[in-house]
Amino acid sequence: MKDLLTKLTNTATGKFGAEYAEIRAQNLSKTMFTMKEGRVEAAKQGVESGVALRVLVKGAWGFASVGAMDSETLMDALSDACSMAKAASAHMKSPIKLAATKAVEDHVQIKPKRNPAEISIEEKIKTVSAINKVALTFDKRVKSCTIDYLDLTGTSFFANSDGSYIEQDKLYVWSKLAATAQQSGVFTHSRDELGSTAGYELFDTETPEALGEKLAKRAVNQLKAKPPKGGAFPVVLGPNVVGVFVHEAFGHLAEADLALSGGVLASNLGKKIASDLVTFYDDGTVNGAFGSFKYDDEGVPAKKSLLIKDGVVTGLMHNRETAQKFNAEPTGNARAEDFKVEPIIRMRNTYFAPRDCAFEELIEDVKAGYYFKSFRGGQASLDGGFQVGIQEACEIVNGELGEPVRDASISGNTLETLFKVDAVGKDFELHSGRCGKGQTAFIGDGGPHIRVNEVTVGGSA
Amino acid sequence: MVALEKDAMLSLAEKTVKAALQKGAAEAEVFVYDGKATSVGIERGQITKSDRIIDRGIGVRVQLNKAIGFAYTNIVDNQTAVENTILNALGAARASKPDPDWKGLPERRPYPAALEKTFDKKIFDLRSEDLVDVASRLLDASTEADKRVFPIEGGAGAAYGANVIVNSNGISAFDQGTVVECSLAAIAKEGNTVTPVCFEFSAERNYKINPEWVGKEAARLAVSALKTKRIETKTYKLIFTQFALQELLYYTLINAVKADNVQRNQSAFKDKLGTKVGSDTLTIYDDGLLVGGLRTGIFDGEGSPRQKTTVMEKGVLRSFLYDNYTAKKEGKESTGNASRAGYLSTPSVETTNFHILPGDKTPYEMLSEVDDGLIVYYLQGAHSSNPVSGEFSVVATPAWRIKKGKIEHATRGVMLAGNIFELLKNVSAAADNERKMGQLVAPWLMVENVRVIGK
Fold it and tell me: Is the same domain home to A355 and A372?
């Protein structure tokens, strides 16, 4: 593989006039299925194999993707990519340049305790059935349970015209759990997501029984919940909500491509944008976490990047192109979902660093507010507006947890909200998820419990 | 690589069905896909890239003792790879439990006559250079409109896709189509003010798009979002544009009319057929044959004929949407709503062109009827709506204030909350300006009494 890929990068720069060329090849196998009420909907096994060729010619990108590995097809695709780049460069005002990186040669091997590629599909179905059964039998008001399962294993190959050649083993195990409950016209919905790059041992730490019970319990508990009051309230956010807030409301703004696209962070580098208690990382090095890997899809080592330290913006997440623009180091955030797409700036494991408060201390000063424990979805825009939907919540009344609340959401301006963080817990959880930005990326996010002294709560009551 | 020929695709699929039956499958279905997509990308004010993706693959679905297995590969020119795919599908079926509700793959039924405006050779032949021209016209139109506009992302693209489905019940079908599109996401900047992203696009099955309009319209929206004011919390009359409807309806109304959700008690419309669930204004078809529709085709993801299904007639719920499996469970025929995300997915129930019929008011007339309200373009957070109960709580970003029939100013920090199924009953008018947007074909809708949370 090394000879083939190197020949291609050499031809791009030698014969087709490319300033830079990178070739990514992959051989991946996937197993997936969805289980609904104990019934497997078509278990699937798939092979995805192909090559992505990306070149920079006259400051513009050309990209070709083919599901083939033979030299002739790849040469054609390379020539195609180079002439497309040339066409795209016709109206170039500021040609693209890349930050320099060290050439790397490496072969990254993983050693899972339990490799999903060696586990039968029967056993995987059995694990998921166990979750399903516990959830459905937990309470007769639980009406449905849908579980998606996916694992992905294989190898990716990378070569570029700077002399890097990297082979990396890939391994992901992922599952999404959802249940609904119903009672006298009230419908409730509960979701959970788990993932790992370590191996199938994921299900040894989070047992199917515990997962099923947690899922069902949340759906049932919401049946007696009431809608929240709309308005501004102090809130305590659980690690699951903090994670999605850090990811959606802040993380995307710290992606350098979005910062350059008019995001509010480009003009705030080095400035204080949050309370002293706020420290954020985006970390590609957390062992076994869902957003971890050793090299990104531009061959740059994944780092632990400090984004905010004690309220001050210290850095952004970069690929080689944006690092050059900001005169910064590439951070290893360039990721491509597969060989059909180009690498773009993506988060890895993004989290709020813990401090020293106990949970009781966070709620004891809240007279009338909410505790938002887990989320249903979240979204943000470049101007710093965000929205996070909440699936599990309760009131806080005079410093104590009160009645459950359903279908709430919080929204506001990220920078304003970060200044309102007035207490940060000492606990810490990292959750697994997927992030959509045209492509899907596997990510982690999390943090401790935190308190925000005022945020807009959307509700129908 | 050139596109695979129709005959080559059909013969690959037929051979694979036969081989699957020989290897022990009780039923077999093979889906072959061949696609080519060329695009030119705009990033931060200039054209920066051009991409071409050639994607083909084969998906094999088998039934063995009433258990289903599926496997796929994108290596189609290698016999061993295809044989392994069959074996993987059989292995997956053996691992699954029998499904007593499985009543067989679809039977062959007559297809509609050849459709107009789904394939355009001109789109198939578009080169990067042609798309660079489209993208640069769009870009120029946006920046010439106003200096404060900053185009963030967008471009032009041409896509071709061909599908073949062959199954052991006698279905053997080929269809091909094209789509051309151009789009722009722009913001406006003035001093320290940055607007939310404003997006416009144009997408058609034949080569007839208007990049200048897209550029100008994205710019117009962005500039008009610069000066914002907060508004007070109360109920308002709202106009939802198609962007907002697409967001709001997908996770709620569309979810509720899919038969699989109804059968699994996950739809608020269970037991509501024939009853009034929306206002008289709402007549909705799922129309897989709509001329020029972005989801129009001869057959669906498992070879059942596409059709026009009445979902709602003057507010009365008339039908759910079925694929073969959910239809046979109720002793019905599929409504042609099986959808596949390419060769790597099994079919699932999805809308085709979800067509909300337009009314007769011009957008201008509709605006003039709003004394105190909002027009909502983009929503954030609709995917966190409660899909079963229809409760939603979303951010309108931006929405524009309407006073005495005129758009006055943009707003900020506005949330809308309520229940989509209540909202459907409060739709008081449909405009005459329908447009296609993904699976939605709809006009602007006017809705009374929506709760808006402002300052």
Answer: yes
